[in-house]
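call fold(seq) -> tokens
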Amino acid sequence: MKRYSAFAIAREAMRHHTGWERAWKSPEPKKEYDVIIIGAGGHGLATAFYLGKNFGITNVAVIEKGWLGGGNTGRNTTIIRSNYLQDESAAIFEKARSLYETMSQDLNYNVMFSPRGVIMLAQTESEIRGYQRTAHANNLQGVATQYIDAQKVKELCPIIELSGPRYPVLGGLWQPRGGTARHDAVAWGYARACSDMGMDIIQQCEVTGITRKNGKVTGVETAKGYIKTKKLGIVVAGNSGHLADMAGFRLPVESIALQAMVTEPIKPCMDVVIMANTVHGYLSQSDKGEMVIGGGTDAFNNYTQRGSFHHIEETVRALIETFPMLSRLKMLRQWGGIVDMTGDRSAIISKTPLGNCFINCGWGTGGFKTIPGSGWAMAELIADGEPRALAAPFTLDRFKEGRFIDESVAAGVAH
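ret:
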């Protein structure tokens, strides 16, 4: 793999950009692999990357039924933060945030990580108390956050309206090292690095069946034929329940659409990320100038990947009180992703009833921000066969034992 650099750009400019290689290979599948990972989104590719980087396991296939990064990885609002209340959540999200900071250098691929800071608005008295509690918890966890007053919020985000008639801004939880990254670039960077290690990324290859013998997976039936494997990782977000059913076990998850939209591009006016949990809306400005807007999940289970009018109304009508300038903008495009929600709104990184089958799912509406941390923990699980510290709290056993990691209330919002 040729390294990307300023010198490489200059060299290729001199020869009319004829020397660039394909970022990753598209091979036909081999008959057998040491590890097959189903799902070539951010989490699946990160798992493969850290299997190779941390454990030297490179006889790996990443199988994707569509195109690389075409699921939730390319359908989110790119927010990165780690200011969760529960210790287990804060640990894995902070691991992910720290890995994002060096990801461009680690992958030799610019993922456009922008630590612009994230503010979670306090718009009720109960939110003030909740965020002050979270700030204290974060300080004990080693996560740098602080509670700030309304004037500091205004200083950081001048376009905000503090005295909205229904939703006044009273303060906020501020994480200066939170921010955003380019979602496509994260997937592409991991894919390029995995391909360089000799791993096979196989697109347009839907898994149609999982074969088992003596309590273990033996291989997968795919649109490109049968492939044997010694270990199987299932990392397919909203389709996790479907794949688990193929493997013969059930998951405590439900699939729901999460929608977002962007406005027409405008001049830079906002250099932080704002999350308003009372009205369940969040806002940032992309590098192209678009205002990126998201909200809550649909109120019913579904597998749609398109937007709907009710979501526009529910999300925008509250945000325009806090950001009046939004009312003058035109919507450019809208989309949806299929998220997998657990009862406690925390993820599952776990062994399954099949001895050599492992699953990573349940990230709900907060999957993008933890891609590198999730991949790191999942790689440890697949390599060792047992979870290490990061993944240990997130096993399936917690639902039988009642030791939930409750972020549905503690975090206020799961994004």
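The two ends are 35 Å apart (CA to CA).
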